[in-house]
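WP5 quarterly update. Target: Glycosyltransferase family 4 protein. Source organism: Vitreoscilla massiliensis. Length: 395 aa.
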Amino acid sequence: MSPQANLHIAHIVDLRVIGGIERMALELILATPQVRHSLVLFDKHIHPSLATPLAQAAQVVGIYSSKHWGSVRLPKSLRAGRRRQLIQQSGADVVLNWSQVLDTRGIVTPIVFYEHGSAWERYSTEQLQQCYHNIHHCIAVSQAAKRMLQLHHGVTQPITVIENTVFKQPNVNTQPRTLPTGRLVLGAAGRLVARKNFAVLIEAVAWLREQGRDVSLHIAGTGPDLERLQQRVQRLGLSEHVRLLGYVEDMDAFYQQCDVFVCPSIWESYGLVAIEAFAAGLPVIGAATDGLPEVVSDGINGVCIPPHWDGEAFTAAMHEAATFDRDYSYRALTDSMEAQQSLSPAGIATAVTVLMDDAERYHNMSRAALQAALAIKSYPQLAAAVLASVAEARA
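Structure tokens (predicted):
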């Protein structure tokens, strides 16, 4: 009998918002109808785009809120106990914790921790001990994520690296792109939050236009920083050149409308958007830290820029407080943690200029991007690997 036969997984996950990890949890559940799934959530509220498919999935045998006992909302001090009770009552064989650093003490069911970005966050020693003390093993979406778990969170249990992938196989362009003779359209995508660093990218567009470069920027995504970014666009006089598109349903069409993709994030655990951009033949520009260089090969299918703005330099130049000045990034070259830094507008603009001034380089990078997209594993392959790893905890 297969180790996955009759497997029942209890998922600890927060589905109140929609992001990469929430979509990953949903897609894994939908891709494994042979497994029973119970969901132990933070709250009764589920993002509308997740609620309907979960309600229609027969493999989901229970959805529970650790914040509630019936109609009663529990204080924080009782929620860890409620979570333990719900997991025990579910009868699950294994717990899959979706990157939630929380108190798991007293949970006797084997726990697998799926690292998808929490290793870059700051927690107290007590919080880390309460979370990791009784896990069976971890799954990390990149080598950078594995090392951050070890170096930053002090995890000593085994860690399996299962590289991330896209949810559906991308429609890969058949021909590489040629450098446009007119305006160059930069693309970016992600939640509008400080970590994604879109303010610096907007400043890079201003820098390029001041240098006489005909560029525009399209950003796909929603989030709490929308108004702040809109104000920066207006202040820089870029309203005709920077478009904040909000939620984009057809991302394939979005990528096709761009010429170069920029990922200015302070850190990325992997860099899924880069794969999506590759499928459209787009060279990708981003930071030479954390997980992105595992996707983007510098000088081959994109440009990886060493960030050099520390918190003080960022605050002085951007006229807003840096949110990363006490955090760390992973540097593969030294296999070590270093203080987080930001790309600068000039650094991004220089990389864009190099591509704009070399049509052959741009064309070759586009060809390499397509080759990288064709080599990406399918989501069913990832789901099978994750399921096999989770099943090991039951053995």
